[in-house]
TrEMBL record:
Record key words, sorted: Calcium, Collagen, Lectin, Secreted, Signal
Protein name: Collectin-10 Collectin-1
Keyword presence, Calcium: yes
Ranges where the record places region Disordered: 29-95
Keyword Secreted listed: yes
GO biological process, one term: ossification
Amino acid sequence: MGLLVLCVFAAVLNYISASSEVCTNTLLPGAKGDQGEIGEEGAQGKLGKDGPPGLPGVTGETGLKGAVGHTGKMGPSGDKGDKGDTGLDGPSGLKGKPGTTCDCGRYRKVVGQLDVNVSKLRNAVKFVKNVILGLKETEERYYLLVKDPKRFREASMNCKLRGGSLAMPKTSNTNRLMADYVSQAGLTRVYIGVQAQSKDAGGTSSYVYADSSPLQGFASWSPDDDLHIHTNSTCVELLSTGTWGHVECEATMFFICEFPKSRRRGGGRGTPGLAAS
């Protein structure tokens, strides 16, 4: 009996040993193959989201100063200034010659009234010229500041329609009178009757007055006004400081007209025409 059990146990061990040999007969991975060829480039992918902004860059250098811009439109007139103090009384005149006895009778009162009327008329004319019209005058000419902004050519034509021309400061005294006129009106610049006529071989412009006469003996150019910079600015403006400057002829600004004083019968003087506007 014991022998039989031993045989059965031995048979079982042989069976188990045979079964384990069968289970170990499996496929194992082979050796690593050669590297394959590189494939074609794929299609471009979709655009990704924007990344965060980078840090601010270093501040650049300051650029060059730009060219001078066009002259702006004339600003509104300022408020009227306070009335000046009354001047000192002038010295008394010389004693007149004694009058002759006249038997005019009733005409004496008429003559006296005529003198009063003439004095009133002179005062009225002076008021019209100096207050209402704002005229300035010298021994030979009247000057009128026209507060109607126009281009240079239009301003010149406007003065001609009034019977005059654009004002021409041919002396330092006349130039000072016109500059004070501009300053008292609360303005800074006006057109005057000076304009470039032609250029010489060196590119320098020659200037003439409105009556085509050349500048002789007097000019008041601003030291800051460079002729070589303003090659296209062929017209001239008078500043309230008394200096001249170059300006584009298409700029609109106020201007001064001048009118010669004409002698009339009896020694009277004419006044400039004011119909044009």
